[in-house]
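dumping this here before i forget
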Amino acid sequence: MVLGATTKPERYAFKAVNMLVEKGHSVLALGQNAGEVAGVKIQTKAIPLKNIDTVTLYLNPTRQRDYYNYIVEAKPKRVIFNPGTENPEFYQLLKLNDIKVEVACTLVLLATNQY
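structure:
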């Protein structure tokens, strides 16, 4: 799941959705504005999540607070904090719920086959 998805091609969240699709990953996208990227519809409201492997964040720490419970309840295996999204407060909450925290760049992980 890409949280902070956008239809703006210059944004890293846009590039991440494209690259995830290109690499064959199933993608859910949640963003402020509706739209579509690489055939993936951007949802504007939190949808029920099941069997989520990874949440990759493209929201600043202040905006992340609205999603703390949503993400924890989804029980992803990991949450990737991309550059600019670092949030020690959220790291602690995730770790308390046995969710792996990864401070990394999704684009780099995908490009180097480490995703």
